[in-house]
Amino acid sequence: MGQLPPDIWIAVRLTVELAAITTAILLIAGTPLAWWLSRTGAWWKEGVAAIVAMPLVLPPTVLGFYLLVALGPDGPGGMIASLWGARTLAFTFEGLVIGSVVYSLPFVVQPIRNAFEAMGDRPLEVAATLRASPLRAFWTVAIPLARPGFLTGAVLGFAHTVGEFGIVLMIGGNIPGSTKVLSVAIFDYVETSQWREASILAGGMVVFGFVVILTMMLIEKRIGRAGL
Amino acid sequence: MNGQGLISAAFEGKTGTFSLDAAFAVPASGVTALFGPSGCGKTTVLRCMAGLLRLKDGHCAVDGDVWQDGGSFRPAHKRPVGYVFQEASLFPHLSVTGNLLYATRGRKPAKPADPVGFDEVVSLLGLGRFLDRSPRHLSGGERQRVAIGRALLSQPKLLLMDEPLSALDRLSKDEILPYLERLHLALSIPVLYVSHDLAEVERLADTLVLMETGRVRAAGPIAALLADPDLPLLHMPQPAAVVDGSVLFHDPTYGLSTVDIPGGQLLVSGDLGSAGGRCRLRIPARDVSLGRELPLDTSILNALPAKILGAEPAADKQMTVRLALGEDGSGAPILSRISKLSWDRLQLKPGETVIARIKAVALADSTKELPD
Which strands sit side by side in the sheet containing B353-358, from one edge to the other? Predict the structure, then answer.
């Protein structure tokens, strides 16, 4: 096997970075959202839940189009970019992070919400009768009990970000070292008939996908045994 | 301040389709049972007391400390209660010790600031063997014991127990009841105990709050309520009286203990502990027969004078006779179930003094020690 071109590794590193940052943001932002969705009695909560779930059904190109407009010079993204003298968030790594967060949101929020709902009110009531403030009950009871939901959400969010293609192409383009992620790289290699590189990357993705699914199944089996 | 030494509660409002309008005031000492059929609102009252549920029109105060009144409502985590749920509801991600010390954030209580000690609870409830274990590996009865210990170690001023035995099988129930009785003896924390099992209530409660479809039917000392002709307890198929007494001495030759009760003394089989110890006796009405004279040739050991207070007709041509022990009727209330024929033949009337013959065997059952 000959030397792999260095741009493969650049693409791999960029993809992992993007997925890691996206997952971290989603866990931080998605947890309060999932908590609210699981606890609130507001009649419009299912409306919010539907908006969160939209990326599941929208074609990535549609989502990508709106994101492109929003991140561009005339959208809110452009205004934010002007804070540090740039013109646009489109075709930047930051723009990709924003797009990935929106796109992978349901994959993180849903499992965490399910875990919070499965837990029920009882553990929090117990905590309250043991003098725990709502905040302490959240950190010491709700978060630990929902851990399997966080694991599932993190794995799904990470894997889903690694695999995205349509949105990346729409808002990120194909800039090596900045927005050229794995899936775009594979597309590029095929376009330029570099079949060996394409098959190495594609094969790597197959292995990655298998490991992800297997991990998920093992996590779920462990939850079942623990009998929460 | 007003309300010292009292638990007072008044809750009115709706939860879902159920409407509650319950008010009572009971002593802030000993065990008070909230008793009634399933769905009568006992648990709702308990949840209101704990602050887990807020009804619009509510008032509750414990020992002069107001927890809810009009617009003011103290949230659950700021009320000094311990709550034992129907299911143990232990935290599965913590060890038994972690559960026990959750309220104190892992700190063991330090006397005298904390009246309930860690080692005391562990030995009272027999938890020593599984402190380091995960709650997942405990039996139902063991879990409920940990849950009781966890509630006690939050140093509550009031312990709320919501049918803590109902999710357990017969064997686990029998395992836990002695612990509850010991607890009652060793700690002076008042308990509100929800139950629909009269046997449990007769064994544990000092005060009874009788509930029916969201309302309080009656509240008072258990002995008085069991013998009240206006309440349904007397009209049940197997009514009984409970009498609290103190042990005088034990005679090992015949295996009998002499117990002093208001209005007389009773012989009870078995060793009921050292002299001076308090015990509760249960006297089923069907084990008490009546006669005009002191029986001379009978195997029945206990025959005490008692004054007839009244009599209510019961099923199958029988009468439930209400009596008070002692020649003058100043002693403990008891019940007797006799046939209508005997009632008429003996020509018994309220106000008369008769001899109540109590089968000794009936007394050995479900005795309990009480706090001083």
Answer: B288-291, B353-358, B302-314, B318-325, B333-339
Please, where in chain B does CATH 3.40.50.300 lie?
A: 6-226
B103 with A126: Cβ contact below 8 A: no
Which of A122, A129, A140 faces B82 most closely, judged by CB atoms?
Answer: A129
What CATH number does domain B6-226 carry, 3.30.70.2640, 3.40.50.300, 3.30.479.30, 3.30.428.10?
3.40.50.300
Per-residue pLDDT tens digits for A146-191: 998 999 999 999 999 998 888 988 888 788 888 888 889 899 899 9
CATH assignment of A8-37+59-181? 1.10.3720.10
- Identify any residues that bridge with B283 across adjacent strands, giving them in sequence order: B241
**Domain B240-364 = CATH 3.30.70.260:** no
Domain locations in chain A as residue ranges: 8-37+59-181
Contacts of A147 in chain B (CB under 8 A): 93
Question: Looking at the complex, does the CB of residue B345 fall below 8 Å from at least one CB of chain A?
Answer: no
Smallest CA–CA distance, residue A221 to chain B, in Å, is 16
pTM of the predicted structure, to 2 decimals = 0.85
A contacts of B192 (beta carbons < 8 Å): none
Give A149's contacts (C-beta < 8 A, 6+ positions apart).
A34, A111, A112, A113, A114, A115, A116, A118
B286 Cβ contact list (under 8 Å, min separation 6): B238, B337
Query: Does the ipTM exceed 0.95?
Result: no
Please tell me which of the candidates B77, B150, B160 has its beta carbon nearest to residue A128.
B77
How close A25 gets to chain B, by Cα (Å)? 26
